[in-house]
């Protein structure tokens, strides 16, 4: 039986990547007087690397003008990533990141129906705090039984570590949960932990990029979620 919704953040709760993290990275580059810019297409390619700092390091390997030594690249990535997160919070604060259709309504419906909910994301805790307090208000954290972020794992998605950690902390079997994700890396992480999976494609992860082998329920991009429908699908998937 469905007991818990496990929410991804980036791309699932909101289109944070194209209009949030990407724009914030570019502001951080500019502020550091680096002649670097990630356009929408390049950022999409880089999303195969999960984790903003890791993404930056992967890009630096090929980027002329990036520091030569690995230690210097690490230090620069750390500095730029912190500034990126600062600018991301500023963009969120300006109201530039809207929730995706039906997300807040499903969070409310699930809470009213007595389901527990958790956040299971690769993004940094500061980014989750900025976005969710904007979308749900200052007591946002009370909506969730658990909030797991990028800092909480050694290996980021598509590794299942964060899902296994969530199941263990919540004392759940995988078939008592439903993961809500938008991307192949997120979906792979959930399925490797045997958690049933709803995938709603996002700007950077259209349906064609989502492997059918995941056995996910691919949800229409703009359709509101309906809790009874989610429960029915979950029951058939388990
Ligand atoms: C999200 C990510 C994150 C964000 C940026 O993946 O990969 O790195 O792009 O966040 P998912 P940070 O939606 O699968 O959790 O810069 O804080 O890492
Ligand atoms: Mg995602």
Q: What average pLDDT do the residues reach? A: 97
Q: Work out the count of structural domains.
A: 2
Estimate the helix proportion, in percent.
40-55%
Q: Over all CA atoms, what is the radius of gyration?
A: 18 Å
Oligomeric state as shown = single chain
Span from first to last CA? Answer: 8 Å
Report the bound ligands by name, code or SMILES.
xylulose-1,5-bisphosphate, magnesium ion
Summarize the helix and strand pattern as letters: EHHHHHEHEHEHEEH
Which overall shape is indicated by the principal axes computed on the Cα atoms? globular
Which CATH architecture of the largest domain would you pick? Answer: 3-Layer(aba) Sandwich
Please give the largest β-sheet: 6 strands, parallel
Number of helices: 9
Enter the CATH topology name of the largest domain: Rossmann fold
CATH C-level category of the largest domain: Alpha Beta
What would your notes on this structure say?
With 238 residues, the protein is an alpha/beta fold. The protein folds into two domains: 4-14 and 98-237, Rossmann fold (3-Layer(aba) Sandwich), CATH 3.40.50.1000; 17-93, Putative phosphatase, domain 2 (DNA polymerase, domain 1, Orthogonal Bundle), CATH 1.10.150.240. Helices cover 46% and strands 9% of the residues. The chain has nine helices and six strands, in the order βαααααβαβαβαββα. It has helices at residues 16-31, 40-46, 52-62, 70-93, 103-112, 125-136, 161-170, 184-192, 227-237, and strands at 4-7, 116-120, 146-148, 177-181, 197-199, 217-218. Strands 3-2-1-4-5-6 form a six-stranded parallel β-sheet, sandwiched between helices. Helix 1 packs across helix 4 (70-93), helix 3 crosses helix 4 and helix 4 runs parallel beside helix 6. The radius of gyration is 18 Å and the shape is globular. The protein starts with a strand and ends with a helix. Bound molecules: xylulose-1,5-bisphosphate and magnesium ion (MG). Magnesium ion (MG) is lined by residues 8, 10-12, 181-183, 186.
């Amino acid at each position: 039986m469905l007991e818990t919704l496990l929410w991804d953040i980036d791309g699932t709760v909101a289109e944070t990547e194209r209009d949030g993290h990407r724009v914030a990275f570019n502001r951080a580059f500019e502020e550091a007087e680096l002649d670097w810019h990630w356009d929408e297409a390049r950022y999409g390619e880089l999303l195969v690397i999960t984790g903003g700092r890791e993404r930056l390091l992967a890009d630096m390997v090929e980027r002329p003008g990036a520091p030569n030594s690995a230690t210097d690249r690490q230090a620069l990535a750390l500095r730029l990533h912190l500034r990126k997160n600062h600018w991301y919070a500023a963009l969120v604060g300006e109201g530039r990141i809207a929730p995706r259709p039906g997300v807040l309504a499903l969070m409310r419906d699930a809470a009213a129906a007595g389901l527990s909910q958790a956040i299971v994301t690769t993004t940094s805790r500061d980014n989750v705090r900025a976005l969710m307090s904007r979308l749900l208000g200052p007591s946002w954290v009370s909506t969730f039984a658990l909030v797991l972020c990028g800092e909480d794992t050694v290996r980021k998605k598509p590794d299942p570590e964060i899902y296994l950690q969530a199941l263990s902390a919540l004392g759940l079997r995988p078939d008592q949960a439903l993961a809500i994700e938008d991307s192949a890396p997120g979906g792979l992480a959930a399925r490797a932990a045997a958690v049933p999976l709803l995938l709603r494609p996002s700007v950077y992860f259209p349906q064609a990029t989502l492997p059918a082998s995941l056995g996910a329920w691919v949800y229409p991009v703009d359709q509101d979620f309906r809790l009874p429908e989610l429960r029915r699908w979950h029951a058939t998937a388990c």
